[in-house]
Each structure stands twice: as C-alpha cells, then as structure tokens.
Design a protein that fits this description.
The structure is a single chain. This protein has about 140 residues and is an all-beta fold. The protein is built from no helices and 10 strands.
Length: about 140
C-alpha cells in the first residue's frame, strides 16, 4: 500500500522577493528566505499481523545521500516496537541554524503522523532509537 505525503524542508534555493518600489541595484533586494519543497511517496506496511520481526532499511535522499540505516519492527500486545539504527547523519544545522535535531516519524496511510522520538547522534554521527507506537500500519521517515 502506498500513499503520498508532503514534507517541506527549508534548504538552499534562491527566492528573491522584491518589495514595492525597490530598485535593481538596491541592497535591500537580497533574498529574504530560501525554500525547497520535497514531495515523496512512502510505502506503508501493516506490522500488526506479522508473527516475526520485520527488518527495513533507510536510505538518504539527495539532500543526504550518504546517510543510511535500518530498523527492526516487531508487533507486541497493544503496540508495535521500532528498533532503529542510523549512520552518517550529518549535524542537522547543516540544513540551516533552525534545525537542531532529527525526528523519527510514523505516517499512516491516511496521513496521520506520530512523532516517535528524537534521533540523537553520537560523536561519530551514528544514532540508535528504540520506541513504540499504537499504529499498526505505517511508513517510517526521518526529518531534520
């Protein structure tokens, strides 16, 4: 089952906004902000009916091509647990000073999102996270 999710991440893309009456050589003509909108589809898996743990892999996007990871998802009574590991996560501030951390999200096919937890890197840019969710069917996503 696939669904479309919309995620917005502010990254370098020049967008100049000209206030009324601004002249071409005016130094107030500099870009006010930069925005890149990224849209992807994300497969959702029903983990609630699986008798064995399910292993999935994470891979980076064009914004972080070297990043990768894996997760083992296991259905237990009343919850689904996620054991995730990530490698080569650059500092989130690489994307702008307003990005302080990474977050792991579960997204249902209906578009319901659940913030599973903060992904905190160690001194070699690796991270581990063990969380649970009440969602049974979801896709996993990491954002800055």
């Amino acid at each position: 089952m696939k669904f479309k999710s919309h995620f917005w991440l502010a990254l370098p893309l020049v967008m100049a906004l000209n206030p009324p009456g601004a002249r071409a050589g005016d130094e107030h003509n500099a870009p006010i902000y930069r925005v890149t909108v990224v849209q992807r589809s994300l497969p959702a898996v029903n983990y609630g009916h699986r008798s064995e743990p399910t292993k999935i892999d994470f891979r980076g996007t064009v914004l972080a091509p070297g990043t990768h990871g894996s997760a083992t998802i296991e259905a237990k009574a009343g919850a689904v647990t996620v054991h995730a590991k990530f490698a080569a996560l650059d500092a989130p501030a690489k994307y702008g000073p307003q990005y302080l951390t990474y977050v792991l999200w579960a997204i249902s096919p209906e578009g319901q999102d659940e913030r599973l937890g903060e992904v905190i890197t160690n001194h070699i840019d690796d991270a581990k996270l063990e969380v649970s969710t009440s969602l049974q069917t979801f896709g996993l996503l990491v954002t800055a």
